[in-house]
Write a sequence for this structure.
């Protein structure tokens, strides 16, 4: 649906579409363990859900074993690596893989619908050239897998704005989580409550990111843009629209650094397509008609057939004074970055 809507708006004519390659086991093993990849490959061949070892690798429940899942995961990882390589080769300033953003996967464990962590693989590829890479995550859920991967290094800073509430997956990403060892202060977490809207989110985002850029001085950026923050998403949490997320994206793009954009969550499929199509247009500097063009999935956008997403009447549970304190604490922490 995402690609079809982007195509229907004629946006493909204004960008280079690159055929992605499939990641090799060796490439995925830059982060994931051999034993995990071998097990995922083995059970993927027949969709075996009964292998007792699968539980140890996080397979089952929210990461079900289905036939061909290894090939799919390798394709997603390969697409992000292809996009990262385009940046390294100076073929573009912004590269996009909306199928990526699998930010929950761990070194030896699938988690939260994520079987490989393509974001980590992309960052590692960019690190072959760029000394300091910034990871920015605006998905509804904490980017725990990426933060964990780089928690001990000062070469990658991770910034995640997410819902933080008792019992809400993955249960990590508190304000006090700032990294470990040499990586202390290089993990930035912005915990938020339900109902936050565009203006307040953007205010928090820019306040944090201005300080992040000033203190960390990144050479490249990877940004995960999960669409489960949208109003109307089944997660029923944040109250955002593509316009608000687009403003956050533009704030990062104005730095004019090599930037890799990834997808992520998004469980209202039509709204996810709306969001990522709007963001694609924002990257290209294009303004889109509010009327959804006629195409294969046109009927999925009823009953209004509009590109816009309207915020709901959900109350904003975020206290202004508390948010100010969160931002102030983060700015204080960032003063320790050297």
């Amino acid at each position: 649906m995402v690609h079809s809507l982007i195509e229907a708006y004629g946006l493909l004519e204004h960008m280079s579409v690159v055929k992605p390659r499939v990641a090799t086991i060796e490439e995925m093993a830059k982060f994931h363990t051999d034993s995990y990849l071998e097990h995922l490959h083995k059970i993927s061949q027949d969709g075996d859900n009964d292998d007792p070892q699968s539980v140890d690798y996080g397979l089952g429940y929210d990461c079900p074993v289905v036939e061909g899942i290894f090939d799919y995961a390798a394709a997603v990882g390969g697409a992000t690596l292809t996009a990262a390589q385009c940046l390294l080769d100076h073929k573009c300033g912004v590269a996009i893989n909306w199928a990526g953003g699998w930010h929950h996967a761990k070194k030896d464990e699938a988690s939260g619908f994520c079987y490989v962590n393509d974001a980590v693989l992309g960052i590692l590829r960019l690190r072959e050239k760029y000394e300091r890479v910034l990871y920015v995550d605006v998905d509804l859920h904490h980017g725990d897998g990426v933060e964990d991967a780089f928690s001990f290094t000062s070469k990658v800073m991770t910034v995640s704005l997410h819902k933080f509430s008792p019992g809400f997956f993955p249960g990590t990403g508190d304000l006090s989580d700032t990294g470990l060892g040499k990586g202390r202060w290089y993990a930035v977490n912005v915990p938020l409550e339900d109902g936050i809207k565009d203006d307040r989110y953007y205010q928090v985002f820019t306040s944090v990111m201005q300080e992040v850029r000033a203190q960390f001085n990144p050479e490249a950026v990877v940004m995960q843009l999960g669409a489960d923050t949208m109003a109307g998403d089944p997660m029923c949490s944040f109250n955002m629209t593509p316009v608000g997320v687009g403003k956050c994206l533009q704030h990062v793009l104005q730095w004019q650094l090599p930037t890799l954009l990834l997808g992520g969550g998004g469980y209202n499929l039509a709204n996810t397509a709306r969001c990522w199509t709007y963001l694609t247009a924002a990257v290209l500097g294009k303004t889109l008609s509010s009327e959804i063009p006629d195409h294969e999935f046109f009927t999925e956008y009823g009953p209004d057939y509009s590109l816009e997403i309207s915020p709901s009447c959900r109350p904003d549970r975020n206290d202004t004074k508390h948010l100010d304190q969160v931002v102030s604490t983060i700015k204080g922490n960032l003063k320790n970055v050297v």
The longest strand covers residues 156-163. The chain has a mean pLDDT of 97.
